[in-house]
């Protein structure tokens, strides 16, 4: 049994390393093209920050996995740092999905009532709120080298779990509503970023939620299902690494060979949208 567990741990560890390396390359390309070569609009600002959050998460996983492979023991700060980066990406994904859904349901109202700098403010707010949402329960529960304060740990941990589950629900519900609206109710062409919003929600549902579940029930899962953490970590890396592939799949045109920049421009750039969607905003208005 110990040999089987050792084999499973080694396989998941090296798969995590491979997924992290691939995701670093993919998200780095997204940051390079979207940050420097593609005109950004209100929705692509979310995707730019999301690529940054995924890059941080995968970089942390790569570093911690390398340390674990060298020392045969996980690093002490692995879980809180990984959850911090993952939570930031989850906030950005929820904000992107919710606004994409609202802009499809109420395009005229969304375009008329949307304040300037909304995307930048929401992204900044997400980065700021993620720090206390993860670090406070991690500190109270002894994950940062401090002593455990049981009652404070329970209160902060419950708030952190509610935060993460709420963001996950917003992303999944927004993707479902957008799918139902576009396929069954709306007569307009599919809005821009429809495929990205729907694909990201499915990725979260399949690959991201196990990591949220582990953070929520860490002690119980460590006791009953020790293999759950390495498996959830691997799936979380797949969740973050697959988004550039999703952008590529949405942007490419079958039968045509195009530069990667052109594919990302089609998938992530914003121009005049069909069907009354939101037009691209100037850089100063984002």
TrEMBL record:
One of its GO terms (molecular function) is G protein-coupled receptor activity. Its main location: membrane. Residues 26-247 form the G-protein coupled receptors family 1 profile domain. Keywords: Cell membrane, G-protein coupled receptor, Membrane, Receptor, Transducer, Transmembrane, Transmembrane helix. It is a multi-pass membrane protein. PROSITE patterns: G_PROTEIN_RECEP_F1_2. The chain crosses the membrane at residues 12-34, 46-64, 76-98, 119-140, 160-181, 193-216, 228-250. It holds the Pfam family 7tm_1. InterPro entries: GPCR_Rhodpsn, GPCR_Rhodpsn_7TM, MRGPCRFAMILY. One of its GO terms (cellular component) is plasma membrane. It is found in: Cell membrane. Belongs to the G-protein coupled receptor 1 family. Mas subfamily. This is Mas-related G-protein coupled receptor member G. It comes from Galemys pyrenaicus.
């Amino acid at each position: 049994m110990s040999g089987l567990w050792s084999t499973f741990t080694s396989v998941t560890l090296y798969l995590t390393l491979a997924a992290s390396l691939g995701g670093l390359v993919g998200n780095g390309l997204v940051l390079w093209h979207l940050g420097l070569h593609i005109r950004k609009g209100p929705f692509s600002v979310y995707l730019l920050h999301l690529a940054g959050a995924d890059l941080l998460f995968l970089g942390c996983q790569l570093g911690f996995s390398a340390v674990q492979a060298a020392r045969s023991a996980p690093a002490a700060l692995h879980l809180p740092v990984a959850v911090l980066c993952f939570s930031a990406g989850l906030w950005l994904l929820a904000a992107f999905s919710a606004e994409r859904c609202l802009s499809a349901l109420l395009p005229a109202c969304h375009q008329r009532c949307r304040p300037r700098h909304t995307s930048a403010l929401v992204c900044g707010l997400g980065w700021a709120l993620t720090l206390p949402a993860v670090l406070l329960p991690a500190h109270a529960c002894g994950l940062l080298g401090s002593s455990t304060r049981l009652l404070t740990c329970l209160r902060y941990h419950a708030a952190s779990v509610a935060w993460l589950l709420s963001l996950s629900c917003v992303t999944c519900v927004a993707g479902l509503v957008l799918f139902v609206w576009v396929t069954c109710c709306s007569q307009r062409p599919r809005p821009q970023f429809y495929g990205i919003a729907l694909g990201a929600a499915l990725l979260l549902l399949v690959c991201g939620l196990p990591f949220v579940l582990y953070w929520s029930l860490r002690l119980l899962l460590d006791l009953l299902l020790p293999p759950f953490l390495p498996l959830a970590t691997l799936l979380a890396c797949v969740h973050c690494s697959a988004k550039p592939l999703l952008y590529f799949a949405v942007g490419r045109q079958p039968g045509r060979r195009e530069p990667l920049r052109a594919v990302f421009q089609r998938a992530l750039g914003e121009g005049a949208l069909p069907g009354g969607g939101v037009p691209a905003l100037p850089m100063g208005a984002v």
